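User: I'm preparing a small set of examples for a lab meeting where we compare how different chains pack in three dimensions. I only have the primary sequence for this one, and I'd like the structure in token form so I can line it up with the others. Please keep the answer compact; I'll paste it straight into my notes.
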Amino acid sequence: MKRAIVAVFLLLAGCEELPEPAFLYGEQLGGLEFVVIDPDQGVHPNSSIMSHPDNPFRRGVSLDTKFAAQDVGPIPAFYAWSTALVQEPTGEHQFYAAAAARDIYLSERAEPEDLVFARSIAVRGFQNCLTEFPDSSGTFDITGNTRFDLLAQAIDGIEALGGRVPQGWAVVENADGVRVAVRTE
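Assistant: Understood. Below is the structure token output for the 185-residue chain.
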């Protein structure tokens, strides 16, 4: 009888479903497609990217992984940075998600019907940097060596895509000759 109970216990214990890892290393990221399931994906506070079937990072993304995804191309970068934005809403995450959407649009890396959304997501993401994360003034580039004004870059992104910069923002050159975003109101 004891052997039967132990056998049943071991059988049941072995059937426990293990949680899926946050990201399967070795998964090919280069073949990803930019597919829009929600026109607000990648724009804070929308979290639809976490249930996006094409998002390989929907279970989470680490610091190293989001930069590695960026090295692969704008589509994996978009999914990684949009996931990071949901996990931890910051201006940096919003900026890089918007920049990836911009790069998808400019390089025409999506179906024509989705390119319109890529542009819109990029513009609204850059605008969101100014309206939702106005204190996110500086960040480092992917190398970690060059610091730049995130908000000035967001304004540049909006203007380059023909979007409207939120009222009360402008880019000026500071005393050191660095372009920075400032509030004008």
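A couple of notes for your slides: Residues 2-24 have pLDDT under 50 and may be disordered. Strands lie at 138-140, 147-149, 169-173, 179-183.

User: Perfect, thanks.
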